[in-house]
Amino acid sequence: MNPMTQEKPTVLIVGAGLGGVTLGLILEAAGVPFSIFEKASSVKPLGSALSLGPTVLPLFKQLGIYDEVLSKCKAHVITQDYSEDRHPVGVVDWKLVHELGGYAAQIISRPVLYDILLRGIPSGKIHMNKKLVSYFDEDDSVTLDFADGTQYKGHVLIGADGAYSTVRKLMYAKIKEAGKLPEEDEGALPYRTTCLVGQTTPQNPEEFPEMRTEDCTFYSVRGINEPYTRAVFAGKENTHMWMVVHHLNEELSSSQDKQESNHNSEWGPEAAEAMCNDVRHLTIPGGDGNLTIGDLIDRTPKDLISKVMLEEKVFESWYGDRVALLGDACHKFDPAGGAGAANAIQDAICLGNWINTLPKTISTKEWRIVFQDYVEERLPIAKENFAKSQFFASLTENTWYAMGLRFMVHNIPEFLHRRVLVQLMQNRPQLSFLPYVKDEGTVPAMSQHSLIHTGWIIKSVQQEADRHARKANAASPVVAV
Q1: Residue 388 and residue 339: Cα distance in Å, rounded?
Q2: CA distance 141 to 322
Q3: 3-class SS at 302?
Q4: Backbone phi, psi, residue 7, to 5°
Q5: What is the pLDDT of residues 125-175, one digit of tens each?
Q6: Which strands form 228-234's sheet, in the order they lie side by side?
Q7: CA–CA dist 58, 65 (Å, integer)
Q8: Which InterPro entries match (predicted)?
């Protein structure tokens, strides 16, 4: 039972991606009023595979969705690397993840996970076709203005609206006007790669034997003769989740204004067709031994194929007054490290812990203090994961340096492999207001400030409530029968 019974702040979340919906699910469990606003008219089931593990699965146990999520996953035990002529060249072993972190690494379809999370949000709390135009924050509230002329008022705004966040753009304009925006936050988002992603319809396991394995078959082909890396996951629903990464010759950048002028949504299918034609011939393992990416493209609905830029940046400014950022809006990782979704979920855990303990009456100054605690917990971890993602991304490149790195990874001594996995598994955050999930990893979870501090607040409130209850009972007259 959550003892925080005071009237809680109304949270306005802009962006109905994985991070925004996860925060909504957490606030629903905490009894915190919230609304989610999404600029799209509907959410399409776009994307490929997601990696889940000890860094997020304890949360799913707390929220009561762990069993459903796990039923849609396949364990990720190894990654098998292949050459362009489909010969195996090395293996990356992930079996130690279970021992070290208490949970095996899992692969799930991104749309499937999103659907599970979304079903936990009451339909009246999510609003589609809501394009944010501006916001105005006062000392006791924040008001959002949308392109359709509607307004919504709450106590705090969370920007979970992706790499080209409108909330961030508006917030940064205010911070810059005050002369407090760091120079590094003003630049456009850099990217070195573009990516084509999709998921086939369910396939016949007799035609694709990789579907028949209990664990997830994960093939990766690193391009040498051509600047493309491809990855294929055989999913729980007998689908192929696939992606093709195009390594560019130079680092480019994309500004928000450029994105908006091109009408290019982050997961939109508009730019995909030309790249599909460019990569159809690329070889992949599986099936009858003669597969190409084109075979998977032909088995994937066209409107569920998308081309995206893989931007990489961690912003320094995560909040301003009654506004804070979450997920890709404040840190964008290359997907090679599998850290993007996990870090958005961890942001939501930290924010959820703090928001649950707050009354709606706190001032803007007090919100800034809370958000600073949020940043102090999450920013260092985001920067560490950003560096790790860049390392994993470098493994996919078609350079001699990358080939040397891959050789080292394929032949890494066990003690060093264990040390690397320990660093990846240590951050296993949980919510303070739901029953704590026993940690069964052999490596202790790192200290989580929001869990400890808000847990102490909740315990203090509960003890005070119990004291008042005992006092009231003692003062009640005893009626003789």
Answers
A1: 9
A2: 8
A3: helix
A4: -65, 125
A5: 999 999 999 999 988 999 999 999 999 999 999 999 999 999 999 999 999
A6: 88-93, 78-82, 218-222, 228-234, 240-254, 189-199, 306-311
A7: 10
A8: FAD-bd, FAD/NAD-bd_sf, FAD_mOase_fung
Helices 18-30 and 340-356, packing angle to 10 deg: 30
- Name 200's Cβ contacts closer than 8 Å, sequence gap at least 6: 239, 240, 242, 296, 299, 300
Helices 449-475 and 340-356 cross at an angle (nearest 10°) of: 30
What's the rounded Cα separation, in Å, for the pair 377 and 379?
Answer: 6
Alpha-helical (H) ranges within 328-438 are 340-356, 364-395, 400-410, 414-425
Task: Give the closest residue to 126 by CA, choosing from 11, 290, 232.
Answer: 11
Task: Give the gyration radius of the chain's Cα atoms.
Answer: 24
Domains of the chain: 11-449 (3.50.50.60)
Distance CA 196, CA 167 (A): 27
Whether residue 79 contacts residue 218, with contact meaning beta carbons closer than 8 Å, is answered with yes
Using an 8 Å Cβ cutoff, are 364 and 309 in contact? no
β partners of residue 154: 142
0.90 cut: is pTM over it?
yes
DSSP state of 215: S
Element (H, E) at 74: strand 74-75
Q: Is the confidence at residue 389, as pLDDT, over 60?
A: yes
Distance from C-alpha of 107 to C-alpha of 410, rounded to nearest angstrom: 21
User: To which H or E segment does residue 469 belong?
Assistant: helix 449-475
Count of C-beta atoms within a 10 Å radius of residue 286: 21
